[in-house]
Protein 1
Amino acid sequence: MIRYAKPTTLDEALALLGEGAWRVLAGGTDFYPAQGAKPFRDNVLDINGLVCLRGIAETESHWVLGARTTWTDLVRHPLPAAFDALKQAAREVGSLQIQNVASIAGNLCNASPAADGVPGLLVLDAEVELRSAATTRYLALQDFILGNRRTALLPGEMVTAVRVPKHAAAGTSAFVKLGARRYLVISIAMVAARLVIDKGIVTEAAVSVGSCSAVASRLSGVEAVLRGKPALSTLADAVLSAPMAELSPIADVRGTAEYRLDAARELVARAVLGACGLTNDNRMVAA
Amino acid sequence: MSQSEMIEALPDLLPSFGLERADIAFAVNGAAVSVNVPPLRRLSQVLRDELQLTGTKVGCDAGDCGACTVLVDGDAVCACLMPAASAAGTSVTTVEGLANGLLSALQASFLAHGAAQCGICTPALLVAATALLETKPNPTEVEVQDALGGILCRCTGYRKIVAAVMDASLQAAGLDFRMPQSGHAIGSSPVRLDGVPKVTGGEKFGGDSFPADALAVLVVRSPHYHASFAFGDLDGWAKKHPGIAGVFTAADIPGKNCFGVIGPFADQPALAEGFARLRGEAVALVAGERETMLDLDLQDFPVRWTELPHFLLPGDAQADGAALIHANRPDNLLTKGFVERGDPEAALAGAAFTATGAIDTSYVEHAYIEPEAGHAYMDGDTLVVVACTQAPYMDRDDTAKVLGLAVDKVRIVPTATGGGFGSKLDVSLQPLIGLVALKTGRPAALAYTRNESMMSTTKRHPSEMKATIGADAVGRVTGMVFTGDFNTGAYASWGPTVANRVPVHASGPYATPNYRAEGRAIHTHGPISGAFRGFGVPQATIMQETLYDELAGKLGMDRLDFRLKNCLRNGSETVTGQRLESGVGIFECLDSLRPHWARATADADTFNSSNTSKKRGVGVASCWYGCGNTSLPNPSTIRVGIAPAGEVILHQGAVDIGQGSNTVITQICADALGLPLERFRLKSADTAISPDAGKTSASRQTFVTGKAAEKAGRALREKILRFANVSEKASLQLDGPAIVIREGEATRRIDLAALDMDSDGFVFRAEETYDPPTLPLDAKGQGKPYAVYGYGAQIAELEVDLKLGTVKLLKITAAHDVGKAINPLLVEGQIEGGIAQGIGMALMEEYIPGRTENLHDYLIPTIGDVPPIEHILIEVPDPEGPFGAKGLGEHVLIPTAPAILNAIRHATGVLITKVPATPTRIRAAIRDKEARA
């Protein structure tokens, strides 16, 4: 017999995790598709009994998103405008049915290059709270997702929260997703941009791109180019000539590598303008 | 690994790995329930298998289709992604909980709008829309789309769903179920006769009525495109897994292990023998108790594969020295079709302008939301197969052949079919579950997973086409040559039909005096290409209609005018030399588009004059399509009678896969008989009770079965009139268990109970067969392949984002000549659904073997991808069709993709020559053009 456990306290869950290998079940929206029609052969730790892991809290220093917080929870929760990109992304995670149960931490742990939630969290300088029975540690999101389907999660650990430092919850943001149809689509490329604009000048810029590298990535070259520039439509021109060395897209059924690079640059320009409030029709670009 | 090693690798008795069961309590539709299941069991399975709430459908088990949507504490979720454990303590709402005795306003609105066709996605849509309406009783279109974006529908094109939800608040007064009066059934749009169960969850599809004691069946399939295989110790393996009732292979097949929809080309084994010709081919069956099978891992199934070289492209299949997939088919050529008329070379040489091009198209998956499902059992010495299908009698004959049974010892009971579009014409699981039932004596049930449905069943043929069309200086088409290679995959299926239909239709509905067309069906180790709405004509029409735009450009003619100038008219001869005396409605279709064309092109010009990064375009394309089999017998038989209770019993054998034949055939019969629709009771297409009305295919049911229904209705009327000794002018009325016959002042009343009843329960009966009059095609493809053609033309308006290569559709205007719209609402439903599939084919659908075997990598249009559709119904009566009606099921898909490609070219100046026109391809073409500029 395989083991199944549905603990109701975090301590209990962490103690179980320390006992051996478990597959963690949260929203189930990646768990079941991965399972397909195969019978279960792994021990499963069902964390849906951990009420403490769901919800959004504000501390002195952080916004704390509980690991089990769903995308719908996030959309419904009042948050600063810096979270707008993440909220827009939340509305594009699968479908409403998926958003109603899928967890934020699950999207990170699944570590798909096309995870809709990652670019929006990257521009918020998000960090992942990892707990085991023995310790708690924090990793920057870009250090947590190591590659396609690979994370820095250690045996005995689980993600318990995603934290956004207050300093990064500043400014305005926008998200653009490019897919081959309007709904329920894995992106060809997607971009989140967050800008802090002071007296008409971009003082802070955070831009990230998903589906164009093994792990969604911040674009430091683009960010550097944007800082100090007037928040005008000319930002788009700056983007179009900025370095994007972080991107290394692959070709797959959704698009060629060349197309992805080409499109990503255009999407970055649109997301930046969107974050400036200069356009508003960029939430989803569907063929 | 040797056989003995495989056996030794197995432990003596495999332990049960399964999860311990738990009692889980929750509420369903307001009632408390408790189930004892493993906590990780999907909620969808719990609802269906434990609670018999089969209104919740399973389409993919991955959250990709949304068919299993239920409400949990008021929020929509995919039940297939929720563990039973998470349902504990919640309140679940399924479609069965929406009606509360009376239909909800939303359910009524769905019926009133014709928003349910096959009905497989309807429960999910209703449930999700109910949640929306709780908070937004009068939602906007975008709100409806956002709420329903996660539910795929393959039949309707979504527009009527959107309207039904937006108008639900207006529906509260209740649904008008009143039927049209006697003699006025045709031309009216009553609530579809089979509609109510589609909105209550009561409809039983292939997987919805499995007997509790049925053996579950798993299919072992080839993971390779081409491989030989050998089994290890099957008995030993089975014995180590308690609960397995049997393992079956080709060696167990008692009959001829070879089926196929076209007898002379039959070539497909039900279970492969020694080697597999395609990925996903069935090689063995494992049958066992349901719970055992849920926990069975086929990883250690004793089969050893030896992969063999394979090819997936026709070019490779025809290369020198390519291995033959079927030894009796040289060059891997299944067959070819050919039509030649006049002297095309001379015509093209003498043409003032010619246009030449090449178009490639991709595999297209039918993607009905209901994967193949059914069960089989023995009723005495008769094998009964209860399954979704488009062709019960063909299923019967092929199943009987494979299982070595006489055809009258096989009974096919069609369930509701959750979409077919051509693929459910071929048998799939029927011989497999039949074999298990026959061998074990126990009921056997199987529902394909989405993955095995996509891997193992047929597709639309990928094509590689080339053509040249020439016109004279005044814009009259003078000649055309066309060649098309169609990748027909590993087995014949409907490949011969595609090869033959394409050359007949590749001219489009245009007079083409000099013509040569060849269509070739070529075997590869790819998925089997078979029938898919249009049998190759949609592909060929892309080739022809894009060249027409190019020719119009060279001529400096308006693109619509060019088509109007060349379209077939009454008295025209087709490329097969068939003289069309009357009923040719393509001119009327194109002519009706004129004001729309003028408005659309003006709109596009206005937009383009002030936008640089986005450009709008307008495209037009036509279709014609012969209804029924190509030059082959194609009969339908309809039996209708009067029962003593005063009901008209119609044996309606034309399987309704959502398109509406249950309603349309009855409407035709009602008016032919002269009795009202409401007195009709339908008998299904069960082969034990209804005569063969042929397959639901080739846009033939309204025409062919409709004609049989008309004849049967008239014959029954004639019998009653003769019995009453009155003239043809008399009127009939059913008054309880009596027929009242009036002629002038005279009234005669026939007490039905006083008449002799025959063994079928009839006091009056008629049975009529209709077979369309066609003539064979000669060596040059000349003849009369079809008795009736239907016509249509569509305008696509769209906007291309030049930087991203994305296409936003703005509107489709569709004019279709249906001869006579028997049921206008159902006609609209066919048009919108066909357009949605055309949109998919044009812009996103590309099945890549091994890579898109699911509904998140294989994309079909969602509710946000189908723009407003304006339909224009043209009624140019056909002299042959019933009440003038023509078929339309396939016609409606054909113009959409070429109209879209032409609109993209209008917007951007680039023609996409490989469909689908994905953002990648459009952007690459734009870049190429910019580089050349």
Protein 2
Amino acid sequence: MPARRTYRSTLFSRIWRGLAAVFWFLLGLLLVLSGLGAWSVYQLDREIQARFEGKRWALPARVFARPLELYVGRPLSIELLRMELDALNYREDGSGPGSFAIRGDTVTVTTRPFVFSDGPEPARAVHLRIQEGMVADLGGQDGQAVELMRVEPMVIGSIYPAHGEDRVLVTLAEVPPGLVAALLATEDRRFLTHRGVDPAGIARAAWANLRAGRTVQGGSTLTQQLVKNFYLTREQSLQRKVTEAVMAVLLEYRYSKQEILEAYLNEVFLGQSGARAIHGFGLAAEFYFQRPLRELELDQLALLVGLARGASYYDPRRFPERALARRNLVLDRMQREALARADDVAAAKEKPLRVTPRMPRGDSQFPAFLDLVRKQLRAEYREEDLRTEGLRIFTTLDPGLQLTLEREVVSGMDELVRARNIQQPLQVAAVLTDPLTGEVLAMLGDRDPRFLGFNRAVEAQRPIGSLVKPFVYLAALSDPSRYTLATLLDDGPLTIDMRSGPWSPQNFDRQFHGQVTAWEALVLSYNVATVRLSQQVGIAQVIRLLQTLGLERQPAALPSLALGALDLSPLEVATLYQALANGGYATRGRAIRDVLNADDQGLSHYSLELRGAVPDGAVQVLNHALHDTTTRGTARQVAQRLPGRILAGKTGTSNDRRDSWFAGFDDRHLLVVWVGLDDNQSTGLTGATGALPLWIRTMSSVPGGSLSLGYHPEVRMTQVDRRSGLRADTDSCPERLRLPFWRDSVPRTRAACDVDTDPVDAQDTGWSEQWFR
Amino acid sequence: MVSMNVRQNGAAAGAVLSRGWLVLLLPLFLVACASPAPRPPMPPQPVPVPDPQVVEPLPVPSPPELEVIKESVPPPPPPSAPAALSLAQQSDVALATGDLRLAALHLERALRIAPRDADLWHRLAGVRLAQREFQQAERMAERSLQLRPGDRRLALENWRVIAQAREARGDSEGARRAWDEVRRLESALG
């Protein structure tokens, strides 16, 4: 028996020991598992905090046009104002911020608030009267005069993060209450009370799905949806669901309902445009309605909320009926949950979708200008910062003038190609600047203004032809003891020995004109006389002048430079001409005014700078001849087409008519136009037949502008004989010119033809007088 | 980098519960190592850019002599836009609080409205002097002189800016000539 007892007791103890081992094993396992579980929860918690505390999103840089400044005396036309407000998507005859109305010459505008680098600009409602090309009256609703105000600037482009996510951040305070109401009614009724997961909601959804036999309801809370978008992949699995639920509970434990809701409003995916993903309600409002979120009405808010469930399935542009049904469902839910009044819901359901038919462009509407901005930014900012830091970049682009330039150049080019039956792909580039501040106002880099590619305005370097001549003459006129506009130059045959062989410059008309005044040689663009003058002044001196005015390269000192054997981009040409329109002061060319970070703190300011200077007396004398070029010279079409305006400019044509140029200015605008072929073949166009008509068309649509030939205390007007350049006090010479002379350079010798039969008072009578008999 | 981290976090978090408990530690360590918490955003660092090629400037136009001014009758200065005046006043307010940056911003905005206003150029020249941008101060004062040659009181103030700017740049000869001009104008004005 003992054996049996021993056996039984052994068996029992073995079983007992086995059970104990199993128990201890299970207990250990449980501890290990809970430890691991706690560890993984801890890790999830860390992950949640890391993402939520730091910078939550990579925000693209936004590039803005210059704001429209309004004040009495500002040059403006109704047409330009309308263009500008349309570009900002202001509603005509609407009400509230972002609307305007035009009654005759009076415009009522209600602007939106905006923060600039020098402080905030409040929203305002004003009346302005536009008369004779300028703002004549500006007053607020209260009848008080408004001295100065700004309309918020339009966004002209963005620099996106590499993954293409785009968003405009909103804070909970900026969000219309209707949006939150619609969101909670549709997506998460118990959001304010649950703790991240909503068991009742899940049960209800499960029951509804069971009854329907398919998925008709989701039980996810807003918090879970945020976790899914924010932290997890799109993969569908049970494990992921569990992770999602754990993270949702952790998120709710760590953060307030407000913080979670705000993150959701900014994170949710609401549309797609090419590679650009539209995230958050702030951007969605612009993307679908071209309007800030705070201006949306109930029906529009409901539409956006409806998209949260499936932005491509309910895409209102592609599937308007589906989107409408979804919107109305959202409105019904709001009514059912008592989050909207029945009559408001009924009114909202009556409304059409109201989505703008065209998708706003993700890339820039003005690619050439934006290209210039990016080039300027890349010199100072890392690409990564531009794409992710939410910088705000304030540029100098004038949208009204940009659209004007595009319209006139495009139609002018069509006309040119048609009239001359040009078969090759004729191209064009143009730069419009404010020469007094150096700001680039508008730019065109291709015949198609929307084409994003080779930007001829900045990158094409072409021989500038006679555009260089004013600088040859300016170099000469800077020494008034030796050169005036009345100085006689020899326009007879000339041969210069060069290393490559003899060079004999020719005139455009293949003739030589003998002894001519400097005035005539410039106004009629004689080549041979100009080459002789440049030889006397010294090519090195001309190059030095060009560099003083902003040329940032070192051209070879060849005699042909005087005829424009110098390859420049239209932007470089504009830089050089700016000083002529600005009293001899070169200004720093700028496309950017300010860069602010996401918190509106200034990072860079591109200040107004005066660079090198040339004597303004000489510049004034030169401008007189450049004005005569537009009345009597190679560009006399200008005076015919734009009578009554005082403008100045110069044509340029390169060898074999490959490049057609015009550069000219009024008191506030400098416009350079180039026309040619990319393969550098001849176009058959001269500066006067190609670029000039485009220049005239554009300038005729630019408000304002007569050049002030100015007043210089050391410049005096005197009549001279056109042939000899000598003084002609009487009218007995066959043709007299009235020319400006700087300092003591008035000719003392009287012309042979100037006989005192009929003495005429040779006193100065002012600039406005007829210069020619 | 931020976007990269997002993707890594997302993938790793999914892995936590999908790989099973036994291989749990490894991905967790990977998570811990691979995705440090995003650091607070660094402000973009402006990279210094070299100045464009410095060229020898041509002689700057010497401001007109007084005798010439007497002979000629300059046209009256263009009426300053009230808008520009109001910005000039705002710039004074900013100056009173010592905010040179804001003062300059207001004046630049005013100059976009009235770029031929000699008084605005003079004011900006003064701000640039205070900002120790001496070359700009001198050029802007000269531009102011150029724009309203007949105004001796303004000329006096501009020559003071020019003299100080030249002194600060170490151009003692130029400064001496400018101070001469200041004294001459002072005695002429009484």
